[in-house]
Design goal:
Elements (H helix, E strand, L loop, with lengths): L2 H9 L6 H13 L4 H14 L3 H12 L14 E6 L7 H11 L3 E6 L9 H5 L11 H11 L1 E5 L6 H11 L7 H15 L3 E8 L8 H17 L3 E8 L7 E3 L1 H11 L5 H17 L6 H13 L2 H12 L5 H4 L9 E6 L4 E6 L1 H10 L16 E4 L6 E2 L4 E7 L2 H6 L1 H5 L2 E4 L9 E5 L1
Parallel strand pairs: 1-2, 1-4, 2-3, 4-5
Antiparallel strand pairs: 5-13, 6-9, 7-11, 8-10, 8-12, 9-11
Helix pairs in contact: 1-3, 2-4, 4-9, 4-10, 5-11, 5-12, 5-14, 9-10, 12-13
This protein binds uracil.
The site of uracil has 7 residues, from helix 9.
Length: 434
């Protein structure tokens, strides 16, 4: 088979057979197809798309490119939860221990921040000693002993995605529904949980800017999951403004602890409790929404949920006292309150702009491998729909020094649009695809 024939066929709008896709992935993973040919092929897929059979074949070929953990052969049910990425998205940090505290096992591979979006691994690494590099045996042991494990991405798992993702990142081919769906779902199938909840985000802080694109992506992933025997549900949720109030690493972990104690901001708490309840229903732990909500509320009120977070932190080498006493988490040396430049209702807060500002403070990476500063970030003092007077607190900036705190102020102000009249805010959850 000649790679160039496949490139020209896709360029001209053709389709690939199951065997051709398996051949492409096998040879690219081995290194016998060069990056320049794969880059051309990715651009052809980006422009011409793939039908659902091709997308599913691509996902399966990528999932089989490395080790398959099959966690559900040893622990079942075991859930996985994945967000397509956003700003202030600490949902996994709260939902994973919450569900485990409700008696359902959670086996999750989780990632680092990508562009302006934050990553669960980076947030967890705010805790002294916590580590996510686990062998397969450690992964299974921690899951069996604690009903929860939060591992980092392994190079053994779906290695084809590791190579393809790095190439897409530098060839303008990220925002493609078949490529995103196969990238995410290949990793999920390689882990092999029994139930998967996808949080597919749309809006200014998400990769999918419109609800229609998010819906298409969600349907593509749910279809792939179901065809592979993985019980998959997708929530379509808004990322039009940052989620909750904290954007950063240690400060987001602190907010997740507040959520687990029932003291978090309303929007993100509601989303976390809803997702946890959905997972309890999916796995049969609760028969209906009322029963699921009661189990979730009990885990919060009894303190079991926050205790489970401390337990997994300790199991993976971290200091659990920093969860019990979040004031022990690292904090930035400089805290500056940015005041509102005007009065009025906040109409919108550009989530991507806020994410980029937080990267400038050191909370994210501009290049792969850049170090991050776990202490820095932003705390929003008001959200879309709130009314402020000129001079009211707008954002607390957590910075490494005075200069950095000063330098990002004008770009932060530019993230806000204002209205003279009250704003009707939209619900966070727009749809659930079951
Ligand atoms: N997350 C992934 O794992 N892959 C993508 O392509 C986009 C987001």
């Amino acid at each position: 088979m000649q790679t160039v024939e496949l490139i020209t066929r896709k360029r001209d709008g053709g389709t690939f057979s199951t065997g051709e896709i398996a051949w492409l992935i096998e040879h690219y993973t081995q290194g016998s197809i060069p990056d320049y040919q794969m880059a051309a092929l990715l651009m052809a897929i980006y422009l011409r798309g793939m039908d659902s059979r091709e997308t599913s074949d691509l996902t399966l070929a990528m999932a089989r490119s490395g080790v398959q953990l099959r966690v559900n052969t040893q622990v079942s049910p075991v859930i996985d939860k994945h967000s397509t990425g956003g700003v202030g998205d600490k949902v996994t940090l709260a939902v994973a221990p919450l569900v485990a505290a409700c008696g359902v096992a959670v086996g999750k591979m989780t990632g680092r921040g990508l562009g302006h979006t934050g990553g669960t691994v980076d947030k967890l690494e705010s805790v002294d000693g916590f580590h996510v590099e686990l062998t397969r045996d450690e992964f299974m042991r921690i899951l069996q002993e604690h009903q929860i494990v939060l591992a980092g991405q392994s190079s053994e798992l779906a290695p084809a995605d590791g190579k393809l993702y790095a190439l897409r990142d530098v060839t303008g081919t990220i925002e493609s529904i078949p490529l995103i769906a196969s990238s995410i779902m290949s990793k999920k199938l390689a882990v092999g949980a029994s139930h998967l909840l996808l949080d597919v985000k749309f809006g200014s802080g998400a990769f999918m800017k419109t609800i229609e694109q998010a819906r298409q992506l969600a349907h593509a992933m749910v279809e792939i999951g179901r065809a592979a025997g993985l019980h998959t549900v997708a929530a379509i949720t808004s990322m039009e403004q940052p989620l909750g109030r904290a954007i950063g690493n240690a400060i987001e972990l602190r907010e997740a602890i507040d959520i687990l104690r029932g003291q978090g901001p309303a929007d993100v708490s509601e989303l976390c409790y809803h997702e946890a309840a959905e997972l309890l229903m999916m796995t049969g732990k609760a028969t209906d929404e009322t029963a699921a909500n009661q189990i979730v509320a009990q885990a919060i009120q009894s303190g079991a949920a926050v205790k489970k977070l401390a337990e997994v932190i300790a199991a993976q080498g971290g200091n659990p006292r920093q969860i019990e006493q979040p004031e022990l988490l690292p904090t930035a040396p400089i805290k500056t309150m940015l005041k509102s430049p005007r009065g009025g209702y906040i109409a919108t807060i550009n989530a991507e702009g806020i994410g980029v500002a937080s990267m400038h403070l050191g909370a994210g990476r501009f290049k792969k491998g850049d170090p991050i500063d776990h202490r820095t970030g932003l705390i929003l003092q008001a959200k879309a729909g709130d009314h402020l007077a000129a001079g009211d607190p707008l954002i607390e900036i957590h910075a490494r020094d005075e200069q950095e705190a000063h330098d990002i102020q004008s770009s932060l102000i530019a993230c806000y649009q204002w209205s003279e009249s009250p704003i009707q805010t939209q619900p966070l959850i727009h749809d659930i695809i079951r």
